[in-house]
Request: fold
Amino acid sequence: MILEGNDIKIYSLVVLRQQLKSEIKGLKFSQSAYACIKKKFGFKGNRQKVYELFDDYVEKQIFENEGGKLSHSTKYGLK
Reply:
């Protein structure tokens, strides 16, 4: 599958969300997804709260990118 246009943005959001999920479970990265998300999107709270807010944001972006269709889970490898 080749990602084009807005799919690249969506994919990067999905990767960032998965990285934050891994950080919550204890995995360490050289650059924290938590800090990056807080800085870039302005979310406030602990890792779990930021994850929940960001997860909602990502799902909304995917929904809008797909034109309101809910068939995105296989395309982006979600959840």
User: Anything to note?
Assistant: Residues 17 and 55 are 7 Å apart (CA to CA). The chain has one domain: 1-23+31-65. Helices lie at 6-24, 33-41, 47-65, 73-76. The mean pLDDT is 87.
